[in-house]
User: Fold Transcriptional regulator from Leptolinea tardivitalis.
Amino acid sequence: MKIAEVSEKYGLSPDTLRYYERIGLISTVNRKENGIRDYDEADLQRIEFIKCMRRAGLPIDVLIDYIGLVEQGDSTIEERKAILQEQRRLLVTRMEEMQQTLNVLDYKINLYDEAVLKKEKAMNRKIVKEAIAE
Amino acid sequence: MKIAEVSEKYGLSPDTLRYYERIGLISTVNRKENGIRDYDEADLQRIEFIKCMRRAGLPIDVLIDYIGLVEQGDSTIEERKAILQEQRRLLVTRMEEMQQTLNVLDYKINLYDEAVLKKEKAMNRKIVKEAIAE
DNA sequence: ACTTGACCTGGAGTTAACTCCAGGTGCTAG
DNA sequence: CTAGCACCTGGAGTTAACTCCAGGTCAAGT
Assistant:
């Protein structure tokens, strides 16, 4: 699969895909004779994983470490698990903070709703008053 | 309240507080005769709000817009509400993505748990075998 | 009087994560 | 055979959000 298709499929720009390879987040992708990248199934799986983790804000350097361990084989299983657990912990914390902010936003939006209603009521009273005055 | 106390109270560095003021996120803070910032209650409330929003990832330029509208008074209520609703929507989307990533992480951690168990079992079998062999 | 420490300013530097670009190669359709 | 893409590389530029720094003021303690 060529870079443009991969880019299309995962919504990552070709530049980003090459960048990920440069920094060692994706191990060197196979090339066709002419030097053009030809992503295989394993590459795609890795890209999907990276995309998922990045979307949630996991930092690239942590992912590089993790993937380095994956490549070292079974002896690193416990270390990898520890990394994921730590990142899971951080993720949950961030989500809790976001939930708090969401509550604040809802509270404020609700205040604005009420303010808008009050404004409208005042407007209506004014209209009625004027109608009576005529 | 001096900048060091505010910094302490909200966990934002003095540099960050001055930076927020420079870019117009906090309206100009009053000074004592000697030119030193003296944060009042309104400043603190604004800082708390900003901190809460920033923690959830709301971008600074959006907050600058929002706060500019707050300062323009009641005529901007609907516009402000629209901003908060839009940010709320984006926040929910991000949280949903994070939840998906959390599920993937849990799945992977679980796989590692099983892998570790298997490893241990194999180890135990080996030990038992050796014990019998003796 | 002098040192210390908190504060000030304007401006430069940093970090993460891309994103863009110039200059070059190589298939393919007209 | 040549025009037009899609691809390549190494390196530079960008963006958001800080963070740091040099050089200066000022009040308080010794």
